[in-house]
Amino acid sequence: MVKAIYPGTFDPITNGHIDLVRRSAKLFEHVVVAIATSSRKKPLFTLEQRVGMAKASLIDVPNVTVEGFTGLLADYAKQKDAKVLIRGVRAVADFEYEYQLASVNRTLYSELESVLLTPSHENAHISSTIVRDVAAHHGDVSSFVPPLVAQALEQKFKANK
């Protein structure tokens, strides 16, 4: 069984993330969406909230699980006996960063391969950062995220209106 991990902070999960998970679920027998604590990035949502939103958004994909994790991704992949990392690449700058990460992860865990997927055309412009910025300015994010995520963002920024 080929198990793949799709890691990230998912702060919040977007339609672009969901598209990559769904497509990955067709390529691999099992996909773990691994949500990093990522205190360095100072996430808008707690780890529990991000895991909850991802689980709810992917509930209909049977071969996908969602988990939070801390520590090195290579160590987490070893613990899960995963051999594949899934990463999304939107632009050349993403590729350069992902190439570096893939090299480091392969050094730390030689059996780990990175698979880079490009977004579908309709999701190529979406990032969690942009979604947070639009939501912070009370813009409509409903075409970028699932409804439950749009509601969570609205609640998060409601006090700043």
From TrEMBL:
Major location category of this protein: cytoplasm
An example Gene Ontology CC term for this record: cytoplasm
Keyword flag Nucleotide-binding: yes
Matches recorded under InterPro entries: Cyt_trans-like, PPAT, Rossmann-like_a/b/a_fold
Key words of the record: ATP-binding, Coenzyme A biosynthesis, Cytoplasm, Magnesium, Nucleotide-binding, Nucleotidyltransferase, Transferase
EC assignment: 2.7.7.3
Compartments (UniProt record): Cytoplasm
Any Pfam family: CTP_transf_like
Site (Transition state stabilizer): H17
Binding site for ATP: T9, F10, H17, G88, V89, R90, E98, N123, A124, H125, I126, S127, S128, T129
One GO molecular-function entry: ATP binding
Catalytic activity: (R)-4'-phosphopantetheine + ATP + H(+) = 3'-dephospho-CoA + diphosphate
Annotated metabolic or biological route of this protein: Cofactor biosynthesis; coenzyme A biosynthesis; CoA from (R)-pantothenate: step 4/5
Cofactors (names): Mg(2+)
Positions with a binding annotation for substrate: T9, K41, L73, R87
Enzyme class of the recorded protein, top EC level: transferase
Domain Cytidyltransferase-like: 5-133
Gene Ontology annotations of biological process type: coenzyme A biosynthetic process
Subunit comment: Homohexamer.
Function as written in the Swiss-Prot or TrEMBL entry: Reversibly transfers an adenylyl group from ATP to 4'-phosphopantetheine, yielding dephospho-CoA (dPCoA) and pyrophosphate.
Family stated for the protein in its record: Belongs to the bacterial CoaD family.
NCBIfam families: coaD_prev_kdtB, cyt_tran_rel
Name of the protein this chain belongs to: Phosphopantetheine adenylyltransferase
Designated gene of the protein: coaD
